[in-house]
Amino acid sequence: MSPYFVAAEDLSMFGRDPWWLVAVKAVFCFAFLMVTVLFSIVWERKVVAWMQLRIGPNRHGPWGMLQSLADGIKLMLKEDLIVKRADKVVYVLAPIVAAIPAFMAIAVIPFGPAGNEISIFGQRTTMQLTDLPIAMLYILAVASVGIYGIVLAGWSSGSTYPLLGGLRSCAQMISYEIAMGAAFASVFLYSGSMSTSAIVEAQQDRWYVILLPVSFVIYIVTMVGETNRAPFDMPESEGDLVGGFNTEYSSIKFAMFMLAEYVNMVTVSAVSVTLFLGGWRAPWPISTFWEGANHGWWPMLWFVVKVQLLLFFFIWLRGTLPRVRYDQLMKLGWKVLIPVSVVWLMLVATVRTLRNENYDFADIALYVGGGVLALLLLSFVADFFRERGRPAPEAPAQAAGFDPMAGGFPVPPLPGQELPPVPRRPSRRDRELIVSGGSDTHSDGTLDGKEASDG
């Protein structure tokens, strides 16, 4: 057997906990997400205020740390309205459908090593709720279900702008989830498993952010698009959609959409830490001189610190980059991320195949580099002959006349058409000069009649 072949994962330590311990760990996962969300909201407002030279929240609690809790209580106490034209059943269920899948993905995220069991009320258990041989497919499936809540919210509101926001969100999810899946597949090829605990164990020597940097960058971009965060927050663009899919929502239902967005931020950050940043493992300088850094409760600290750094990245993007146009969003997803992710996946698969065949690194670099150079040469030759076979451009034809009011209502010009020149309206100064002159003062018949009657 090849030394680079990864053996099947051992998941025998999962599924042995008593029911009460499973309930305790599930409550901990829920509490971890809720506390992280409350902290992230305040942290986002503080960081963006610092970037914009403002103070930020400073009233509720020390340094304003209880501001998000006060906002949640305020939203729950607001009047809960239901739009008259809404489909009431779907309208009420949509926030629930959006929020529940956001909490479910954390169930397979490891907070610590599977072999290092901790004691909870005298019971030895792992620092992970559960694990599956196809845990990453479970995360993808749960994330795909959550989008239904946004789509159904836009459709059930019975209004135009929420419907457009829901459709935008659906198109955005489809566009960016393909590239995300290709980035995941590169990790599967290197780790030989879809289990989250096995993927973290496979990063003992080097994190996958070093071995698979292109996959990491692709996933970082796609996770921002999947969570509808700036600069990809097109489904809730207030400039052209009023408020997007949640325009017609208020009170606790509106709060659940906001909760789902921030929980999804925490979830995708935890997935990124698990796949590319070593999971619960201590950073390189600490793990070299401290043997106990990855034992006990310390792995949870490293995991939380990495998640918070990625949440800061979300906040940094929102305070730095402007919102992109929708055509730019689609172009980035379909014409950049998907082709790059597919080509990179093929490259990773080639390298893994050669490694499993016991080829040396120099031979692999030679074969891969030769293949890349051959593709570039073929592309250059194809472009050269395409340019030679293309006919010379003809002189541009005279732009056809265009009447913007031909159909009875204004229509913008098509490419190659020009609007007729607009007659210049005399300025105020010109009108004053005409009135004060002598030649045009009798042009107004009303004035002449008035003067004649006065005379």
From TrEMBL:
Membrane spanning residue stretches: 20-43, 89-112, 132-155, 176-200, 206-225, 262-280, 300-320, 332-352, 364-385
Q: How does it sit in the membrane?
A: Multi-pass membrane protein
The Gene Ontology terms for molecular function here are: NADH dehydrogenase activity; oxidoreductase activity, acting on NAD(P)H, quinone or similar compound as acceptor; quinone binding
InterPro entries linked to this entry = NADH_UbQ_OxRdtase_su1/FPO, NADH_UbQ_OxRdtase_su1_CS
Q: Domain of life of the organism in this record?
A: Bacteria
**In its keyword annotation, does this UniProt entry include NAD?**
yes
Reaction catalysis annotation: a quinone + NADH + 5 H(+)(in) = a quinol + NAD(+) + 4 H(+)(out)
Sorted alphabetically, which keywords does the UniProt record give?
A: Cell membrane, Membrane, NAD, Oxidoreductase, Quinone, Translocase, Transmembrane, Transmembrane helix, Ubiquinone
Keyword field contains Cell membrane = yes
**Pro residues bias (residue ranges):** 410-424
Query: Where does this protein reside within or beyond the cell?
Result: Cell membrane; Membrane
List cellular component terms (GO). Answer: plasma membrane
- List GO BP terms, alphabetically: aerobic respiration
User: What segment(s) does the record annotate as region Disordered?
Assistant: 402-455
Q: Where is the composition biased (Basic and acidic residues)?
A: 441-455
User: What Pfam families does the entry give?
Assistant: NADHdh (PF00146)
The EC number(s) given in the record are: 7.1.1.-
NCBIfam families reported for this sequence: PRK06076.1-2, PRK06076.1-4
Q: Which family does it belong to?
A: Belongs to the complex I subunit 1 family.
- Role played: NDH-1 shuttles electrons from NADH, via FMN and iron-sulfur (Fe-S) centers, to quinones in the respiratory chain. The immediate electron acceptor for the enzyme in this species is believed to be ubiquinone. Couples the redox reaction to proton translocation (for every two electrons transferred, four hydrogen ions are translocated across the cytoplasmic membrane), and thus conserves the redox energy in a proton gradient. This subunit may bind ubiquinone.
Q: How does it assemble?
A: NDH-1 is composed of 14 different subunits. Subunits NuoA, H, J, K, L, M, N constitute the membrane sector of the complex.
Question: What is the designated name of this protein?
Answer: NADH-quinone oxidoreductase subunit H
What organism does the record attribute this protein to? Streptomyces cadmiisoli
